[in-house]
Structures are given as C-alpha cells and as structure tokens.
Amino acid sequence: MCTILAQHKAYKTTLIEGVAASIASIIALSGDEVHMAADGMIMIHDPWTTSTGNAAELQKRLACWIRRRISWSIYIAVEVEEILP
User: Can you name the residues that pair with 35 across neighbouring β-strands?
Assistant: First the structure.
C-alpha cells in the first residue's frame, strides 16, 4: 500500500490528528507533505514474523530481518527529521 501511494503521481498530504500506530505510521509517512497535530503521535515498532526450517534457514531469515530493521530505522529517522522541525 505504501509503495502504491508513494509512486502515485498525485501530490499527497497526510495529517496525523491522533495516533498513527504500526502500519498507519508508515502510511502517514508516505505522503509528500506530512502534518501532525501538536498532540499527535507516531508509533513504530520492530517488524514481527514467523519462520520455519532448519537452523541454517532460520539464521538466513534472522540476518535478513536484522538488515531490514537497520535500514528501516535509518529511513524512519530521516523521514521524521524532515517532517518534524
């Protein structure tokens, strides 16, 4: 959903009036212009998953999630810095 919004040609303005939690926070940040009420809040948490497989497969999945978590944290920090003075 976020990719579709981000790639759409229309100029998008999002407004966080209360709490944008979990995936709602990511959707809110996909706008070209983001506004947040003075008492608004963005809640972002680490992603969750389930996996099956042997030890080698689980280690591969873990390494993938660690890379994603680091890159996602950097992305969020840049986005929030840009929208919140």
Answer: 15
Question: Which residues neighbour 64 within 8 Å (Cβ) at sequence distance 6 or greater?
Answer: none
Asked if residue 2 lies in contact with residue 26, where contact means CB atoms within 8 angstroms, the answer is yes
pLDDT tens, residue by residue, 11-54:
999 888 888 888 888 888 888 888 888 888 888 776 677 778 89
C-alpha to C-alpha distance for 55 and 10, rounded to whole angstroms: 46
Q: What is the pTM of this model?
A: 0.54
Contacting residues for 84 by C-beta, under 8 A, at least 6 apart = 36
Q: Write the burial class of residue 59 (CB in 10 Å: 0-12 exposed, 13-18 middle, 19+ buried).
A: exposed
